[in-house]
Design goal:
Number of helices: 3
Strand order of the largest sheet: 1-2-3-11-8-13-6
Number of strands: 14
Strand content: 35-45%
């Protein structure tokens, strides 16, 4: 993995092309710390050029709550910059880009209020997270507005994807339970997720 350091934001690549860990470079003094969490120029220098058009907040009462795996298809595919602002999550990106050598692979990382890390999930990738503690809040900046007709999803416990959750998801929406598994969607994904 390579780490780019531009200003006060640190970018670390992951095994999935474009999926990037984003960390703060804290300037600490007696008051606490100051850090830049987003800078258009620094993100662009790291290859992240999507403009934020919407920001979402999700609060979760219980540990074991899983949201996702969600995605939007082109032309409404969205990039996400995901940060945990209270509590802790295991955050996951799934590569759904048909031309990618890691198509169908996933990457996960622990994001917590105390480690202040964020995960950048590029367009045409699925996203999910599992809350690790009660009272967890997640914010995510997105590059496209929510478009109901282009939404899609995969079940978080899909055996084909074999995501190694820290423990089994316990609280899921009916919608997230009902998504067809990856092996039943793969041909449609190869068509609808093309650029």
């Amino acid at each position: 993995m390579r780490t780019l350091r531009d200003g006060r934001v640190r970018f670390t690549s992951t095994p999935l092309d474009g999926v990037t860990m984003v960390e703060l470079d804290e300037r600490v003094d007696d008051r606490g710390f100051f850090a830049r969490s987003y800078c258009l120029e620094e993100f662009a220098a790291a290859g992240i050029t999507h403009v934020v058009v919407q920001e979402n907040v999700s609060f979760n009462h219980r540990a074991g709550t899983c949201r996702g795996i969600h995605y939007q298809t082109p032309p409404h595919a969205e990039a996400k910059l995901v940060r945990c602002t209270a509590g802790a999550v295991f955050d996951v990106a799934v590569d759904l880009r048909p031309e990618s050598p890691t198509f169908g692979a996933w990457f996960g990382a622990e994001l917590t209020a105390s480690n202040r890390r964020a995960l950048y999930v590029p367009p045409r990738c699925g996203h999910a997270y599992l809350t690790l503690v009660d009272g967890t809040e997640v914010t995510y900046q997105v590059s496209a507005a929510y478009t109901p007709g282009s939404e899609g999803g995969l079940p978080p416990t899909d055996p084909t994807l074999s995501i190694e959750w820290p423990f089994a998801p316990m609280v899921l929406s009916d919608k997230d339970r009902a998504w067809a598994p990856f092996d039943e969607q793969v041909e449609r994904l190869r068509t609808t997720m093309e650029e």
